[in-house]
């Protein structure tokens, strides 16, 4: 029985293929181009490895950028405030202290106050000879007038410093709003607190000067009353 012609041709081709050397058999997993063997599986793996490497490099670049940004922010936080009103604040405090130090007759000193009251406001000063009583009364009047004058000078000094205070507040508020870091903001806040402390100091000085004048006026009135009783006693005794 003879095979059909087309079957005989296919069988002959199959036998011829099995007899070829292994190097001449074409494999579907790789290709040979110009003497170079191309493996698609290795190629795809190389592509994936390169992609992962590129992703790692991008992550490292982002980390370096974040570190650089952090360093820039830290540098800004450590940058000092370019303005300072400390000299103006100290100058105003010194002027207020000078005005208090210029207190006439009865100064802001415990020892001086004690000596003045012992000499002119009580005891022998109210019961001595007539001439001494007159002299002490005049001294007490001078004490009161001088104290009121001192109080007005301190108050005038405080009022004169208000323009400088307003300028300092404007400068510090502007510096605080435009601060580029935490240190600048903190320094601006500290200077504002110092300015507030100076204002409180001026207020305390004005109150102290006013209180001194009022106390000396009250002491003069009390001394005058005691002196009047002594004079009336002498008058009755003389009659």
Word description of this protein:
Strands 1-2 form a two-stranded antiparallel sheet. Strand 1 and strand 2 (36-38) form a beta hairpin. It has helices at residues 5-18, 40-77, 86-101, 110-120, 130-160, 162-177, 182-238, and strands spanning 31-33, 36-38. 17% of the residues are buried. It is mainly alpha-helical and 239 residues long. The chain is rod-shaped, with a radius of gyration of 51 Å. The longest helix has 57 residues, at 182-238. Helix 3 (86-101) packs antiparallel against helix 5 (130-160), helix 5 packs antiparallel against helix 7 and helix 6 (162-177) runs antiparallel to helix 7 (182-238). The model is unreliable at 22-31 (pLDDT under 50). The protein has 2 domains: 41-77; 86-238, no CATH class.
Give short descriptive properties of this protein.
239 residues, mainly alpha, two-stranded antiparallel sheet, rod-shaped
Order of helices and strands: HEEHHHHHH
Low-confidence residue ranges? 22-31
Termini, distance in Å? 186 Å
Main sheet? 2 strands, antiparallel
- Considering DSSP H and I runs of 4 or more, what fraction of the residues is helical? over 70%
Number of strands: 2
């Amino acid at each position: 029985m003879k095979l059909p012609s087309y079957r005989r041709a296919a069988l002959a081709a199959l036998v011829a293929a099995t007899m070829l050397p292994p190097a001449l058999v074409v494999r579907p997993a790789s290709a040979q181009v110009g003497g170079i063997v191309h493996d698609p599986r290795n190629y795809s793996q190389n592509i994936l490895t390169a992609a992962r490497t590129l992703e790692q490099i991008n992550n490292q670049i982002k980390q370096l950028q974040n570190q650089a940004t952090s360093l820039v922010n830290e540098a800004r936080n450590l940058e000092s405030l370019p303005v300072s009103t400390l000299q103006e604040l100290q100058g105003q405090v010194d002027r207020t202290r000078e005005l208090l130090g210029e207190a006439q007759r009865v100064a802001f000193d415990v020892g001086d106050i004690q000596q003045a009251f012992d000499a002119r406001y009580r005891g022998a000063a109210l019961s001595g000879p007539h001439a001494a009583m007159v002299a002490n009364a005049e001294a007490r009047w001078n004490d009161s007038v001088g104290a009121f004058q001192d109080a007005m000078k301190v108050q005038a000094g405080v009022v004169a410093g208000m323009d400088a205070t307003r300028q300092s507040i404007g400068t510090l508020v502007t510096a605080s709003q435009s601060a580029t870091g935490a240190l600048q903001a903190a320094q601006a806040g500290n200077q504002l607190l110092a300015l507030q402390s100076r204002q409180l100091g001026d207020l305390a000085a004005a109150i102290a000067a006013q209180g001194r004048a009022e106390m000396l006026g009250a002491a003069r009135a009390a001394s005058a009353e005691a002196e009047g009783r002594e004079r009336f006693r002498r008058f009755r005794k003389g009659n």
